[in-house]
Automatic annotation (TrEMBL):
GO terms for molecular function: aminoacyltransferase activity. This is Peptidoglycan bridge formation glycyltransferase FemA/FemB family protein. It comes from the Bacteria. It holds the Pfam family FemAB. Coiled coil: none annotated. It comes from Kribbella jiaozuonensis. GO terms for biological process: cell wall organization; peptidoglycan biosynthetic process; regulation of cell shape. Keywords: Acyltransferase, Cell shape, Cell wall biogenesis/degradation, Peptidoglycan synthesis, Transferase.
Amino acid sequence: MTLTVSAISSVEHQAFVEAQRSVSFLQIPEWGAVKTEWRSESLGWYDGRRLVGAGLVLHRPVPRLERYTLAYLPQGPVIDWTGSLEEWIDPLAEYLKAQGAFAIRLGPPVRTDVWSAAEVKSGIADPEVERLIRRGEDRVTRWLEGAGWLPQSPEDGFGDGQPQYIYELPLAGLTEDDVLRGMNQQWRRNIKKALKEGVEVSVGSEVKAFHDLYVHTAERDRFTPRPLQYFENLFASMSSARLYLAHHQGSLVAATILVRVGAHAWYLYGASSTSKREVRGSNACQWAMIRDSLAAGCDVYDLRGITPTLDVEDPHVGLIQFKVGTGGQAVRYVGEWDLPLRPMVYRAFDLYMKRRRR
């Protein structure tokens, strides 16, 4: 098989995505419209005249060298990762270098390890276990290393790109009762508590109200919030994005954002009020999103990033403890990798990024 890569229209790209069972929301044309600080491009892989793969590329220019870009394909591209990888990746590199890319960054949507909720809980309870233990290398990682790609995902914590470790709740073939039985007692109790307290969850469009609560959450939990315009653009650009709002006696107590592509649903952002936390609005929002994902026929409800830590003294362990309560499983992906196409420019960009992080 001899493959070629060329630009395709967003309509062609979207049609290809819709023919797949599951594609990351980061690899659909609409995501390019959300990332306004990047230039987006849809690419297609052709076997003769047949479109057999697609990818969303986000181009980031080099400061003072705007003709060169970092070509980023988050959680992509959508190709046959079980096949001969050089047949797919080599024409991509050739095309992007000709377009002025100084490097390519990929995030292959390939899993390397899965840990059940029981394994995660057991690890947290065992003082001798400090992190999720990998079970071996995979062929994609070996190929990337052999082809000169450089790993970018940090071993601990979150980096600048997409998380390598995520937590997900498999839904295929399950009912609402099945999902509830898989949750821990605390999660089931919180969902019932929200119902008993009269928390009402609806899908709405009050982005400003969400953002106000999100900024409050950021101040409380000490992270840097995204601006209101980012969320306004997200809802304007992504047709599948849904805003869930939990109210208690007229007060907004929690809000979350869900995105669905095909059979995969993602929990993207959440916010909650410090007051009235006892009415469990966040759990009510989560349960509403899970129920709607089940009703839509989704295979997976994705709670997004975690760190691999199981150490109870690590401040990040609370995140995985919260998510493991849903049942489900922790998953490790191949991670993000860079291929320098113009080494001198790549080194300059790497130095610039390191200085920014200081």
